[in-house]
Amino acid sequence: MSNLEPIIKLAGVTKSFGAVQVLKGIDLHVSEGEVLVVIGASGSGKSTVLRIMSGLETADSGQVWVNSVPLHDPRRAREIRGHVGMVFQQFNLFPHLTALGNVTLALLKVRKLSAEVAKKKALAVLDRVGLAEKAGNYPSQLSGGQQQRVAIARALAVEPTIMFFDEATSALDPELVGEVTSVMRSLADEGMTMVVVTHEMSFARKTADRVVFMDQGIIAEQGPPEQLFVRPQNDRTKQFLQRVLEV
Questions:
Q1: Cα 227 from Cα 11, distance rounded (Å)
Q2: pLDDT by residue (tens digit) across 138-186?
């Protein structure tokens, strides 16, 4: 990890949906090359934090800097496009396009590459997620794990500096989770800056540089996984981990 200026920085970030305040003054930073995993119960605000970092949601107040772009400045927020990749719980693939077509489309639309160059890059990134031989398959011909790996390939194709994952494995059958988390681990090993919202505690323990536990719109605790999972300091963290780690 780099000790330079954080690549992501949130200061005093709040967000409400109607009368419900979802985020209550979040201060958070992510260093270049860091894998930050955000955990917490449903409704704790973790996905909202991720969506604000990626530019999909706008904070009500506070400052958000991503890759030196001030997302809190509406005039400059668009500059983040192409810098970040986002992988969602649902795969959001176009059913009428093959795996290759889904990945190529991002390169044609975002990077404005020629069809020939886009195809070459798309094949390379499908190979990177272990799906080169499925390039000609349509989403309906792929398993859920394979579809999610195509979604990861599509996000990687535009060469983002940061990857965001929002519950990327929670729509998968349990036996398919491993093939997606192994791709995510390989990205971490390559030094990709990653922010991951997940319920996969084994992924958080093995892959995160730092784990953030959110509770009712605040960061209740954060630290290295060996500290947070083995010696949590906050009572709410302890209660949450007891619930999710029960066998």
A1: 24
A2: 999 999 999 999 999 999 998 999 999 999 888 888 888 888 999 999 9
**CA distances in angstroms from 120 to 44, 185, 219, listed in the order given:** 42, 24, 43
* CA count, 13 A, side-chain hemisphere, 173: 7
Describe the crossing of helices 174-189 and 144-157 by its angle, rounded to 10 degrees: 20
217 within 8 A of 22, measured Cβ to Cβ: yes
Lookup result for tokens 């000790």:
3
* C-beta separation of 217 from 23 below 8 A: yes
Give the Cα separation of 104 and 153 in Å (integer): 10
Band of the pLDDT at 247, cuts 50, 70, 90? very low
| Exposed e or buried b per residue across 93-105, where buried means at least 16 C-beta atoms within 10 angstroms of its C-beta | beeeebbbbbbbb
**Residue-wise burial string across 161-183, b where 16 or more C-beta atoms lie within 10 A, e elsewhere:** ebbbbbbbbeebeeebbbbbbeb
Q: Which two tokens stand for residue 14?
A: 């709040």
Q: Give the CA-trace dihedral at 60, 54, 44, 30, to 10 degrees.
A: -100
Token code pair at residue 1:
């990890």
Instruction: Quote the pTM value.
Output: 0.92
Rounded distance, CA 159 to CA 102, Å? Answer: 16
